[in-house]
Amino acid sequence: MKTYIALLRGINVSGQKKVPMAELRDLLTKAGFQKVQTYIQSGNVIFQSDRDNKTELESIIQKTIEKHFGFEVPILVKTASEIENILNSCPFSKEKKEAAYFTLLHAVPDEALIESTSQETYQNEAFVIENDCVYFYSETGYGKAKCNNNFFERKLKVTATTRNYKTMLKLLSLSTETT
Question: Which site among 24, 35, 38, 61 is 20 to 30 Å from 18 CA-CA?
């Protein structure tokens, strides 16, 4: 059995796409996943599966949610080692890293889009695009940031989901406890 982390995009935000976590845990257990646990209401799931294909796992979770709740949710599945590598590769100082946001991309964007997006600058905001992650820091916080999840999806033409440093650390911790 391998341990995975599924990141759901855009659920339980402003009353949209409501997915109760207890119900989600039950659904995914019935779908064949083991040791299913969730972390906070924003769609973080740790589970075990004997399957090796992450794309297949994403599809199973997406179809299960769509069938039960009646709406589609983008799903991104990562391993604990991938989350750890993302955290370890953060280019910011320790202080900025602990206040950073990690926009996880469903695919590596086209190089030309990375280059053009990287040219954009906004006061009090900094970001670095590396492979399938955008490392983002804002001196004023994420709530009023210009470079939010939607910005990166639009500019890079890739589905994405964003988590803060503390959530990434907690997901890594929970995934290693599950093994």
Answer: 35
Q: How many other C-beta atoms lie within 10 A of the C-beta of residue 91?
A: 13
Choose among 40, 41, 45, 81: nearest CA to 60: 45
**Would you state the pLDDT for residue 62?**
96
Domain ranges of the chain: 2-81, 83-169
Q: Which amino acid is at 142?
A: Y
Q: How many CB atoms lie within 10 A of CB 128?
A: 15
Nearest Cα to 97, choosing from 110, 88, 108? 88
Q: Look at residue 84 and tell me whether its pLDDT is greater than 90.
A: yes
Fold of 2-81: Alpha-Beta Plaits (3.30.70)
Is the model's pLDDT at 124 over the cut of 90?
yes
pTM: 0.93
